[in-house]
Amino acid sequence: MIPANSKIKQTTVEKIAKRYHVSGSTAASWTLEETFPPCLDKGWGKTQLYDEAAVDEWVLEHKPEAWVVAHPKQKEKATALPAGGPKDLLPLDRIGVLEGRFLSREPTPVATLRTYISRGVLARPDRRAGDGGQPEVTEDMWFRETAYNYITRPRRVRRKTGKSDGERREPSEFLRRYFEENPGLLTLEKIAELDGKEQGRSKPTALSTMRAYRSRGLLAPPDRLPNDGKTPEVDEPMWTPESARPYLLRPLGRRGAAAAKSDQ
Questions:
Q1: Rounded to 5 degrees, what are φ and ψ at 73?
Q2: How far is residue 172's CA from residue 179's CA, in Å, rounded to a whole number?
Q3: Is residue 179 a contact partner of residue 172, using CB atoms and an 8 Å limit?
Q4: Under a CB-based contact definition with an 8 Å cutoff, are residues 2 and 41 in contact?
Q5: What is the helix (H) or strand (E) element at residue 7, kind and residue range?
Q6: What are the Low complexity biased-composition ranges (predicted)?
Q7: Widest distance between CA atoms in the chain
Q8: Is 238 in contact with 185 (CB distance < 8 Å)?
């Protein structure tokens, strides 16, 4: 029980989800982790209560990308991002390393970062070789503030569709691991393969079905097309993981849910 005169500010799973812009199921899964602050007490309706300050410290250490969403003016406090001057210069491969550390995964490949530049997700370099600026640089460079704005950009960790669709699912361990290890562009065939596995089927989703989904807007338009003038060049329509995820994480129908449960 919490003493009546306690000054501890309490929070709930619902409030945690709202504070850090994650789904209720994601916030609930955090409370199951071994290092998460213990439940202080149970309120009305057996709602579990937590120490808000302790939860914030835990999120800072274990989920820095979510912590930054709740503290947008304190980005450099996130332990995965070293402090420094806003005009410090960082090369592209360093930005990839820092983003990987920030998201607790492998560094983002330079090739992937270049696709983000072409799409405007990552700003174009602040300095280029031979631009006459000081200090002189021999390769594309970004200011630390530019890089950190990209790394700590809001990510759509909570996605909702219309009333009839409900909330999109959390990715399976298979899909989460795939995107961590393969952050690059996806072909329609690869999305079909991932969709089949995510839905618990032994075969990829038929390409005719995928094209129908695309025409109906259930699958986003491709991010890259042949001869679109962007780099790296592609010879067929390609999707980024961010564009493919909403489709792959759409709510399962009864048949799909049963198949996925059986497969697990």
A1: -95, 5
A2: 11
A3: no
A4: yes
A5: none
A6: 244-264
A7: 68
A8: yes
How many residues does the structure list for the chain?
264
Q: DSSP letters of 174-234? A: HHHHHHHH--S-B-HHHHHHHHHHHTT-SSPPPHHHHHHHHHTTSSPPPSB-TTSS-SS--
Instruction: Return the beta strands (E) in 27-82 as ranges.
Output: 41-42, 48-51
Cα atoms found within 13 Å of the Cα of residue 65, Cβ hemisphere only: 17
Residue 263 amino acid letter:
D
By C-alpha distance, which of 73, 218, 69 is closest to 157?
A: 69
Contact 247, 220 (CB under 8 A): yes
Q: What is the arithmetic mean of pLDDT over 87-110?
A: 88
62 three-class SS? helix
Which residues make Cβ contacts (< 8 Å) with residue 152, sequence separation at least 6?
65, 68, 72, 75, 78, 81, 102
* Whether the Cβ atoms of residue 214 and residue 221 lie closer than 8 Å to each other: yes
pLDDT in tens, 118-163: 888 999 999 999 999 999 999 999 999 999 989 988 765 443 333 3
Measured at the CA of 142, the angle between CA 138 and CA 146, to 5 degrees, comes to 175
Reading the block at residue 72, the tokens are 């947008």
Encoded tokens for 37: 């602050």
Q: Do you find a cis peptide bond into 91, omega within 30 degrees of 0?
A: no
Q: Indicate the helix (H) or strand (E) that contains 257.
A: helix 254-263
Burial of 261: CB neighbours in 10 Å, binned 0-12, 13-18, 19+: exposed
Interval 181-204: pLDDT, tens: 888 899 999 999 999 888 888 889
